[in-house]
Amino acid sequence: MKNAFLIAAILVIATSTAFAQEAPPANQTFDAGLFQLIDSLAREDQKWREVSRTLKNSGNADSMEIAQAYEMMRRTDSLNHLVLVKIVDQYGFPDSDKLGMEGTKYFWLLVQHQNGHPDFQERVLKMMEIAVRQNKASGKDYAYLLDRVLRNTGKLQVYGTQMILNPAGTSFEPSPCIDPEHLNERRASVGLGTIEAYIEIMNQVYSGQLKKKN
């Protein structure tokens, strides 16, 4: 039987150069060693998520292969948590002065996936808010983490970045939001596109999770 899990893993590993390392900023606060650590953690994080997505979208992976990918995601997130806590304890939020904008984005991505530790996510969120105000972190990324924290603590999200399947399973839709009539206005205020465009992207990227419309 075709081993879709192995094929997907090979494809992802072969394309891992998507994490292109940036040139260090021209200042004395950039920490090349920390950047390399964050970069390596982010590569591993994305590897197993890409494997999982590829398997689901292929339409021919069995449930055991998908379960293996999810288990590797879970293990990776768990191991990353220990490292991320140490980084925050030592540096606070590692902003663009410390990591460059790409490195800061990778750090945010790793925190975004710490759903098992909402208190830690919220701790980072408060620090990140200061960095955004200083133009040392992305406002878009902050919006995603804010919504993630709100959803993980049972509250309504603000920007509609966190998605769920609709009851019919035929399309993604945002998890419940505050004031949905003005959602696109709030999204535009942080540089996000419309919720309609975002739904289209999600439906394309995660098409393997959707049921066909009658």
Can you walk me through this structure?
The protein is mostly helical. The chain has two domains: 30-155; 156-214, no CATH class. It has helices at residues 4-14, 32-58, 63-91, 96-112, 118-133, 139-152, 183-189, 195-205, and strands spanning 163-165, 172-174. The protein has a two-stranded antiparallel sheet with strand order 1-2. It is globular, with a radius of gyration of 18 Å.
Question: How are the secondary structure elements laid out?
Answer:
Elements: H1 4-14, H2 32-58, H3 63-91, H4 96-112, H5 118-133, H6 139-152, E1 163-165, E2 172-174, H7 183-189, H8 195-205
Antiparallel strand pairs: 1-2
Key phrases:
single chain; 214 residues; mainly alpha; 2 domains
